[in-house]
Amino acid sequence: MQLIVKKNPTELAKAAADLITKRIKDTLKTKDRFTIALSGGSTPKALHELLAKPPYLQQIPWAQLHIFWGDERYVPIDDEQSNAGMAYDTLLGHVYTPEDQIHVWRTDLEPEAAAADYDRILHDYFGDTGPTFDLVLLGMGDDGHTLSLFPGTEVVHEQTAWTKAYFLQQQDMYRLTLTAPVTNRATCIVFLVAGPKKAEPLKEVLEGAFNPDKYPSQMIKPDHGELIWLVDEKAAADLD
Question: Largest CB tally within 10 Å, which of 97, 115, 125, 164?
């Protein structure tokens, strides 16, 4: 595990953009495509806006990217809560990646069918064994959740399925999510964490006892890949 601390969210977004650009270029030296799973939330939004501008706009071969999402709220893509909608507004609407290489969760299907559809897409891409995504971007909530793995939910401990749909009582909505096992098969996982409200959960996730029912982000432990935590000073304030 690598921990990188930046002064503020602006510097954090730039560090993430630099890291992503380098990994894309390095990977495409030996492969013809780069698979990335995007995240929702405010911190990735700033990153998206940066990637959609020079110099990153020109440096990244967008046509060779295959884009996925770690999770999604079960809402239409034009809903302000949609992770995919946010990504189109801030990034994908400004770059050229072929539409058949962009894989949104199908919220026009019933939740269980949407999860099954995404499971099929993933198995078609990656097969049943070996690594999955070249890069997974994750955030962490104030409650220590990541993806749609929320404290106290059964999906946190899912060991077999790659995708899940379930009703999240506290939000009164369905969530669609990758599970920890398929995420942990990625070549690289990058958490982006910023702000003072993240300080206490970040300390518990990184330095506390293993308690994924309370801090689900602890379930993210790559099988063979890299794990990078990119955080700002306020989020890192409680770390030893």
Answer: 115
